[in-house]
Amino acid sequence: MKFRVVLLGALICLVAQAAGKPSHGVPTMEQSASKVQQSLTGCIDEQDGQYVLLDDQMRKITSLQSAGSDKDVFAKYLGSMVQVSGTKSFEQTATFKVTSIKQVAGNCAQAK
Predict the structure, then answer these.
(1) Domain 29-105 has CATH 2.60.120.1440
(2) Less CB within 10 Å around the terminal CB: N or C of the chain?
(3) What H or E segment, with its residue span, contains residue 58?
(4) Number of Cα atoms under 13 Å in the Cβ half of residue 70
């Protein structure tokens, strides 16, 4: 009887300890999606003080954010067709964190 009480106490301690540890197992779907490198192509525009990527119909694809320290890196590409690489960030309303940018065409009209 005493052995069962000690065993039960040890089991409760192990469960309590495991519940307090952060999970290092399989990442959730949202965590996985936010870490996958992607490339998007579109036209750089500025709307309401924020840089955005537009499709060929001039509809917003996503907001852009520099992954580096240069926040105005997109300014020199305004009106240009570019390919951006980076990751989706769900911390802010579906922002694309850009790690690299490459100009595809001189301006959006030339890319059509």
Answers:
(1) no
(2) N
(3) none
(4) 9
The structure's pTM equals 0.64
Tens digit of each residue's pLDDT (9 = 90 or more) over 11-34: 565 545 555 544 444 444 444 444
Domain ranges of the chain: 29-105
Residues counted in the chain: 112
- Pairwise CA distance, residues 21 & 58, whole Å: 47
Which has the closest alpha carbon to 55: 40, 67, 39? 40
Please tell me the distance from the alpha carbon of residue 70 to that of residue 72, in angstroms, as a whole number: 6
pLDDT of residue 12: 64
3-class SS at 75? helix
